[in-house]
Amino acid sequence: MQPRPLRTTVIGSYPMPCWLECATTQLDRFGAADLTELREDAVVVAVHDQCAAGLDVITDGEQSRFDFNLSFYGYLDGICLEATPPRRFGPPAHDQRGRHAVLSELEAPRGLGAVDEFRRLRKVAPVGPVVKASVPGPYTLSGRLIPNQQYPDRYALTEALLPIVRRELEHLVDAGCEELAVDEPSMSCYGATEDVARLVDIFNRTVETVTGRCRLSTHLCFGNYKGHPVGRRSYAALFPEFTQLAVDEIHVEMANREFAELEIVETIARDKDVAVGIIDVKSYYIETPEDVVERTRRCLQYVPAEKLALAPDCGLGQTARWAARKKLASLVEGVQRVRDS
Ligand SMILES: [Zn+2]
C-alpha cells in the first residue's frame, strides 16, 4: 500500500533549463569538474520546481541524461554509437533517431550511471518528498540496437541486457534507493503484436532480485518523442497479463487519451496501487485545479484513495518548463482540494 492516500507523483523526466540545453550543444568546451557542476545545478533546478509545486514524490528530472535512454548506451561496451538516423529533416518523429551497431559482447563494466544520478539527487533534495529513481528496462533498451549474428533478434539483445539492468537495480537499492521505477515503454507501445506473457516474464526477471527490497513501479507509456506518441494507444491488449508485473504501482496515461479505458485502473487496483496520468504533458492547455479535482474524483469511482496516486501522463521532459511548472502546481492544488473535501 502506498504511504499516503492520493499521493502526487511524477514520471522521470523534467524539462531541461534553457542554459543546460544550450550547454549540451558545446559540451567539449567544459572540463570534467565543470560538467559535474553543470549536472548538479540542473538537478537543483528540477528538484526546486517539483518541491515548489509540493509533490509527494520527486525525481532528478533525468537532467544528466539529456535524453530518456540515449545516455545508457554510452555506458555499454560492444556497441558503435549512433549511426546516422534514416531521416534528418522534416517533422519530428522516432525515425530521426539512429540505431547502434553491436560489435561484440554487450557489457557495462561501469554500470549504467543511475547510481550516480541517485546519489546526486539525494544530495540536493530536501528532507520531505520521496525521491524516486527511474531506469529503462532491457526490452526498451534493446530497441535501438541492431541485431547481428551473436544477437539475432530483439529478444536475444534483451536477454543480454537483462542482467546488466538487474545489476543496476541491485546497486541502486544497495545505495539506499527506496522507490524505483522500471519503465518499459516499448512493451506498452508494441505489446499488442507481441507475446504479452513473454514480456511480463522479461520484466519480472529483470526486477526479481529487488522485489520486496524497495517500492517498485512502472509507467505504461505510449511514447513521447518531442511530444509525439507511437504505437496503438490502447491498454486492452496488455491486460490481464500485465496485472502479473511484479511491481507495487502501475502508472497509466489517461489525460491525453481523454480517459479512454479508465476502467482498467479497477483491474490494476485489485492487487496493486495505481498512478493515473491526469495531466496532459503533450498539450499546452494548462489544467486548472478544478480540472484536477474533477479528474481525481473520476478515478476515485474505480480506485480507493489509499491505492490511488495522481501524476502527469508521462515525463514532463518534452513540455516547456513554464507549462510544466503550472501543470504541477495545479496537480498538487487540485489533489489537496480533494483530500480536504
Ligand atoms: Zn511516458
Structural features, described:
This protein has 341 residues and is α/β, with parallel strands linked by helices. It has one domain (7-340): TIM Barrel. It has eleven helices and twelve strands. The protein has helices at 18-24, 32-53, 70-73, 114-124, 138-142, 154-174, 185-190, 196-207, 264-268, 289-300, 321-340, and strands spanning 7-8, 57-58, 77-80, 100-107, 130-131, 133-136, 145-146, 179-183, 215-220, 249-253, 273-279, 308-312. Helix 10 links the parallel strand 11 and strand 12. Helix 10 packs across helix 11 (321-340). The chain is globular, with a radius of gyration of 19 Å. The mean pLDDT is 95. Bound molecules: zinc ion.
The CATH topology is given as TIM Barrel
What does the oligomeric state look like here?
single chain
Q: If you average the pLDDT, what whole number results?
A: 95
The ordered H/E elements are: EHHEHEEHEEHEHEHHEEHEHEH
Shape: globular
| Helical amount | 25-40%
Count, helices: 11
Distance between the termini: 22 Å
- Which strands sit side by side, in order, in the main sheet? 1-12-11-10-9-8-6
Low-confidence stretches: none
- Count of strand segments: 12
Computed over alpha carbons, the radius of gyration is: 19 Å
Give the cofactors and ligands: zinc ion
Please give the largest β-sheet: 7 strands, parallel
Under the CATH scheme, which architecture would be assigned? Answer: Alpha-Beta Barrel
Structural class: alpha/beta
Strand content: 15-25%
CATH class: Alpha Beta
